[in-house]
Design goal:
218 residues, five-stranded mixed sheet, 32% strand, globular
């Protein structure tokens, strides 16, 4: 199992994306998620992408099909839930998620596809999910290929650290994700996502707080 993408809760329309653009990241295509009630802006790297996600339709995000995902709670403004979601895909050695999960089949996915969402994940942890058909951005088919060149000079996400407030035990999904991918999980005073690019070869850090709970190690 390896990282496919990370979502980060933002305000409607993700005006926070301006911070990433100013740093020198190149924005890819955006998506609407009909029936799920969410929309995004995305930034792609060689091995994964960062998704800025918000609620576009309160009615759809709270409907019977979407409610079990808890996206309504996770993406609501001023919410205390974790603002992150981590999606994984198969590596060469696996084809199924290593954590207990349930199949989610939103209307916007092609027939036969599903998202495997980790069961019994507390809201203070990131949302953990798995997409069996996902591939790295460098392997996307031509029609779906995204820009991967950034004037910031980064190529691939090489390490991930997630800080979660509290002292509770980690869920089974969190432990499985850490064991399979080398993800660093730690406790702290506030939710924080840290992404390291290219083993930190530039030797510098961009801290986007307080606008985004995000640090980039370059």
């Amino acid at each position: 199992m390896e990282l496919d993408h990370i979502f980060l809760r933002t305000s409607a329309g993700a005006p926070e994306a301006a911070l990433l653009l100013e740093l020198g990241l190149t924005e890819g295509s955006a998506n609407q998620h009909p029936g799920q009630g969410t929309a995004n802006r995305r930034f792609f790297f060689h091995n994964a992408f960062l998704e800025l996600l918000w609620i576009a339709s309160p009615a759809e995000v709270s409907n019977a099909a979407t409610s079990p995902t808890q996206l309504a709670q996770r993406l609501a403004p001023e919410q205390t839930a974790s603002p992150f979601g981590l999606c994984f895909r198969p590596s060469e050695a696996d084809s199924t998620p290593p954590f207990p999960s349930w199949p989610y089949r939103p209307a916007y996915l092609p027939a036969g596809m599903q998202v495997d969402i980790a069961s019994n994940t507390p809201l203070y942890e990131p949302m953990w999910f798995y997409l069996a058909q996902a591939v790295p951005p460098t392997q996307a088919e031509a029609a779906r290929r995204q820009p991967l060149q950034h004037t910031l000079g980064v190529n691939a996400i090489s390490a991930i650290s997630v800080t979660v407030p509290g002292t509770e035990d980690w869920s089974a999904a969190a432990l499985a994700a850490r064991a399979c991918t080398g993800l660093r999980l730690q406790r702290g005073s506030a939710h924080l996502l840290e992404l390291t690019f290219d083993q930190g070869r530039q030797g510098r850090t961009c801290d986007l707080r307080p606008a985004l709970p995000l640090m980039l190690h370059l």
